[in-house]
């Protein structure tokens, strides 16, 4: 899989870092509004299952759940349902960037399970999947660097990041409803 120079040594460490990246306000907002926003922007509903740090399927689903919640926080602001908050927006962007850095390591061979929506192309087209993750890393990194100072800047950051969701899901996620 990809060798990330800046990636944490252990993805369990990465996962433990994520809540610290999310400001308290963002976690609260995500908890209160995440499910509705996530549904509104057309991604799977949020789960409330505790992630298991030693289980890569559980971990990667939680990483994506956090990604969806992060987009949900920004979607609410974009729709005028919440005030722009630079700290919450930066927390959302940093959360997605942290997820992007560790994501490719969560797909060992044979981890296509009944609970997982990981598509078979992740393994049959590993180079394509790694390229999609590399783009997600680059775009979330650029969005973090942008550090939006107002809702307009945030929409620009959402544009940079948002195209990745559909692109990767189309090829590498098989929805099971
Ligand atoms: C590089 C590929 C890739 C990118 C980019 C990506 N996803 Fe995903 N996403 C996946 C895969 C693969 C799954 C299925 C994981 C599984 O079930 O094992 C998934 C699952 C999900 C889920 C369901 C999680 C759950 O609880 O089961 C949500 C929500 C989600 N993605 C949101 C997003 C959003 C929002 C973005 C963009 C900001 C995004 N994803 C970008 C590959 C990606």
TrEMBL record:
This is Cytochrome c556. GO terms for biological process: electron transport chain. GO terms for molecular function: electron transfer activity; heme binding; iron ion binding. It holds the Pfam family Cytochrom_C_2. Gene3D superfamilies: Cytochrome c/b562. It comes from Albimonas donghaensis. The lineage of its organism: Bacteria, Pseudomonadati, Pseudomonadota, Alphaproteobacteria, Rhodobacterales.
